[in-house]
Amino acid sequence: MAGCAEGTGSSRAAKSLYDRLGGKEAITAVVDQFVANVAADARINGRFATTDIPKLKRHLVDQVCMAAGGPCIYTGRDMKTAHAGMKITNADFDALVEDLVGALDKFNVPKREQQELLALLGPMKKDIVEVP
Ligand code: HEM
Fold first, then answer.
1. Which of 29, 71, 99, 108 is most buried (CB neighbours < 10 A)?
2. Is the separation of the CB atoms in 26 and 119 below 8 Å?
């Protein structure tokens, strides 16, 4: 709608996914929980044995924030480069998505927003999964 500003106001303009998720603080809380879920997930936690976790969290927050239309700039590697040679499988991918949904549920993110976020991440699958 012309003239309807985005941001903190309660205008009837459609809010960005970023705003509906609750902004950067809420995204950071979800990412912290998401990474904790992954760390506790024996199916995939071995993958992150040598990873710099604080840096990974920063990159995930920026990536989600930017994808959702927020004021962040993702400065990490592209998804193909970041996951190259890991031989990530569909099962690995599904396990990680499950851990993300667990985090979203824990913070009561509504299903609509969850689905929108997963729809933004879904297209990355082809660059991440090497072993279908
Ligand atoms: C939609 C799904 C995924 C997204 C959005 C995602 C996102 C990211 C991002 C942003 C980074 C940081 C890149 C950088 O620092 O330059 C990263 C690194 C990493 N990802 Fe993913 N990832 C996904 C799926 C997976 C899956 C399924 C696995 C394995 C189970 C995985 C394993 C890793 C590992 C081990 C690293 C760290 C690499 C390192 O230590 O250098 N990722 N991912």
1. 99
2. no
The rounded distance, in Å, linking the Cα atoms of 67 and 69 is: 5
Distance 81 CA to ligand 1 centre (A): 10
Is there a contact between 65 and 72 (Cβ–Cβ < 8 Å)?
yes
- The proportion of the chain whose per-residue pLDDT surpasses 70, expressed as a percent, equals 91
Pocket of ligand 1 (CB under 6 A): 44, 47-48, 51, 56, 59-60, 63, 76-77, 82-83, 88, 92-93, 96, 121, 124, 128
Look up the domain containing 122 and give its range. 17-128
CA of 111 to the centre of ligand 1 (A): 24
Q: How confident is the model at residue 13 (pLDDT cuts 50, 70, 90)?
A: confident
The answer to whether residue 45 sits within a structural domain is yes
Nearest CA to ligand 1 atom 11: 56
Q: Give the type of residue at 125.
A: K
12 has pLDDT over 90: no
Tell me, yes or no, whether 33 lies in a domain.
yes
